[in-house]
Amino acid sequence: MSVHLRPEEIEAESFRIIDAEAGSHSWGPDQWPVVRRAIHTSADFDYARSMAFSPDAVPRALAALKAGRGIVTDTTMALSGIAKPRLERFGISVSCFVADPDVARRAREQGITRSILALRAGASDRGNGIFVIGNAPTALFELIRLVREEGLRPDLVVGLPVGFVGAAESKEALLALEHEVPEVPFITNRGRKGGSNVAAAVVNALLILALEG
């Protein structure tokens, strides 16, 4: 491989390799670009098998992005990984409250995680409709609680928390929403794998599709 390839050439070659190694699959034409970018970010082909989309998740996600709905992330890493020029094309704001001093203070006082209170802070703004969770299962569990108990209806949930405690379980709870509250679209995966980088990659893939559509 030439070291003089431009970034876009490296990305194109990476996608060619992924397509070749993945082989035949059942993903639809609107889903595969999302799955492929998750693989591209992580170099992990498990995502070709473990990703899951609620019905119409991608078209509904694209509609939310084109409408300029705000994005809330559970980590500053996920926030940093979302391409800002693409967000600006749609006038989308992106926020993360986990490092907010007031959130930290109230979390200590209440004996709960900052991720829970940060999620609540983002959900309290009606301008926010897209929730991107790549690290904290507690944030995803809280989002699901808000959907079930308080009538929150996100435009999209990207639920990809990572880890050994609660990550897989929180994603199974999100998958269950397809039958309990079918009007909430989501993109997730099964198992322990995930991460802020993969969650941001999913959003970037959707932004690219929105710009192309």
TrEMBL record:
UniProt superkingdom: Bacteria
GO molecular-function terms, A-Z: precorrin-8X methylmutase activity
SUPFAM superfamilies the UniProt entry points to: Precorrin-8X methylmutase CbiC/CobH (SSF63965)
UniProt GO BP: cobalamin biosynthetic process
Record keyword Isomerase present: yes
Boundaries of every Cobalamin biosynthesis precorrin-8X methylmutase CobH/CbiC domain copy: 9-208
Keyword presence, Isomerase: yes
Keywords attached to this entry: Cobalamin biosynthesis, Isomerase
The protein's annotated pathway: Cofactor biosynthesis; adenosylcobalamin biosynthesis
Record family assignment: Belongs to the CobH/CbiC family.
PANTHER family: COBALT-PRECORRIN-8 METHYLMUTASE
Name this polypeptide is given: Precorrin-8X methylmutase
